[in-house]
Design a protein that fits this description.
PDDEXK_14, alpha+beta, six-stranded mixed beta sheet, 2 domains, 18% helix
């Protein structure tokens, strides 16, 4: 992959241990793109579509806006290398569903994915041209769990935080027609999802307050998470909801600006 970009005058560096994307493209000393790479062990013509995890789409959108550069999704097949830009992705999406992928110890994890038409991607090279090239970039950072963003929120969420988010989304899901929920992992800019069967319905950004709603005039949310929620929901055709558990009350706000509250 790096060898193909080199032929186009671009170098690549690793995005880093806390990044949900793989690479950053560099021209000279200037960052010019964010790149997510997927490896598929079959020829490009075998299937008409491929899956892209929603959390990857959210990460690409966040990096693209933050750096002011385009983002690209690249697929390396057994015979060729294809790519599609984030800007062209909406016209290539054929649907959204909950699908499984294999994790360690043979277990299967579930999360929403976009189904993308392969014929909407463009050829950028042949697989035999992707010779191994050394890629520089940041090494693993110790004590990642103690790193915070500009709002003082941990960049790496622990299991207790993920469980709390899923519990809030679980309270909300039946009210929105869902019967299953899940989270997007400890470093994703997306929080939780709710679905009915294998059909995703809503992306949920959760937060928890210790006191009842009447004690709080405003709720502050990290901008990067709100951006990821809105951009990804719009691309996938899903509802976007902010859910706040204040003491025992559950309040939520949709992208349509409608607010709701339940005890």
């Amino acid at each position: 992959m790096a060898a193909i970009l080199y032929r186009h005058g671009l170098a690549v560096v690793k995005a880093g241990g806390l990044a949900e994307i793989n690479l950053l493209a560099v021209a000279g000393e200037r960052l010019v793109g964010a790149v997510e790479v997927k490896r598929r062990y079959h020829e490009a013509a075998r299937y008409p579509t491929l899956y892209i995890n929603l959390r990857k789409v959210a990460a690409m959108a966040t990096w693209s806006v933050a750096l002011g550069v385009p983002a690209w999704f690249v697929v390396v097949y057994d015979d060729q290398v294809q790519a599609i830009s984030l800007a062209d992705l909406p016209g290539a999406v054929g649907g959204c569903r909950v699908d499984g992928y294999r994790v360690r110890h043979g277990a299967t994890a579930l999360e929403p994915v976009l189904e993308v038409r392969v014929n909407a991607m463009r050829l950028i090279g042949r697989t035999e041209e992707t010779a191994e090239v050394e890629i520089g970039g940041p090494a693993s950072i110790p004590d990642q769990s103690r790193m915070v963003d500009l709002d003082g929120q941990p960049l790496l969420r622990d299991q207790a935080t993920l469980d709390q988010a899923v519990a809030i989304a679980g309270r909300l899901a039946p009210l929105l027609g869902g019967d299953r929920v899940g989270h997007f992992g400890p470093i994703s800019p997306l929080d939780c999802w709710a679905a009915r069967g294998d059909r995703p319905l809503v992306l949920v950004l959760t937060t928890c307050l210790p006191l009842p709603p009447e004690w709080h005039r405003v709720v502050t949310l990290p901008l990067r998470l709100v951006l990821a929620l809105q951009a990804t929901a719009q691309l996938a055709g899903l509802r976007a909801v902010v859910a706040v558990q204040a003491d025992t009350d559950l309040c939520w706000l949709e992208r349509t600006s409608r607010s709701h509250r339940t005890g």
